[in-house]
Amino acid sequence: PQEWDKFTNALKTTKYWVLVPVFLILTFSHFLRALRWRLIMEPLGYKPTIANTFLAVLIGYLANLAVPRLGEVLKCTLLSKYEKVPAEKIVGTIVAERAFDVLSLGIVFILALSLQFNVIQTGWNELNAQTATQANSPNNHYILYAFIGLLVIAFILMFVFKSKLQKTIQGLKHIIAGIWEGVISATKLKKHNLFFLYSFGIWFMYFAATYVGLYGTPGTESSLATALSCLAFGSIGMIITPGGIGAYAFLMAKVLELNGVKYSLGLANGTVQWFSQFIILLILGGIGLILLPIINKKAK
Length: 300
Known about the structure:
Layout: H1 2-12, H2 19-41, H3 50-66, H4 70-83, H5 87-115, H6 117-135, H7 139-160, H8 162-184, H9 192-213, H10 224-240, H11 247-258, H12 263-299
Helix pairs in contact: 1-12, 2-3, 2-9, 2-12, 3-4, 3-12, 4-5, 5-6, 5-8, 5-10, 6-11, 9-10, 10-11, 11-12
């Protein structure tokens, strides 16, 4: 009960005006992501408008809040519809983007590790311990049995519908070829420096938003090194649960706790930061849904 009181009091005393610069910083990061995505499409011979690309990115983020990774498919579909580009090819560009984001996250972890070795090591050990506990859960055995059962059913269906399956495979080959072409486009960039500048800008904006957000609740103001560690583990939280719900705030709280901040205060800050990102995507994604058809109707 005492921890809950501290948590609710921290929420009550939150400086919500801090969310304004966070909103602007994250909006700019999404804009840079749209510019980078557009840059990767250039070697394929496509150059969609900045407005359509940016709005498609925002709508994609909105869709991800409901169903993880649905937004990646949706934004490709939208851009394909309004810009007349093959969806399977730009799906490949998304794969290339995500691969580079994983590399960028690895660099963030290395930087955080060099600045806060003990914090990162302790946090990583706790995360591994929790993962191991969940892996040993009895429910996981039922999941494994269900997976094996589905494989058996799939093989039976493949045998029964062999002729139709061959046609499907041909269609899949065409799609996979298009995706691969999109992936390879990242290696044919003419403006490598601009690509790396956009990538640096995206992650620097994430870092800046995290650092500014730490000043949103009393008692969680922290150093740049702490903000970097929060970004590293917070990014993991955004991956392991839909939209980062629960995991983002928890991992932020653990990092701040390891840096001397009470867990309840860290959890309050993590909750506020997660909620601010949720609201930003809700607002911007909603605006994107409204503007995208209007802009393209006028263009026609």
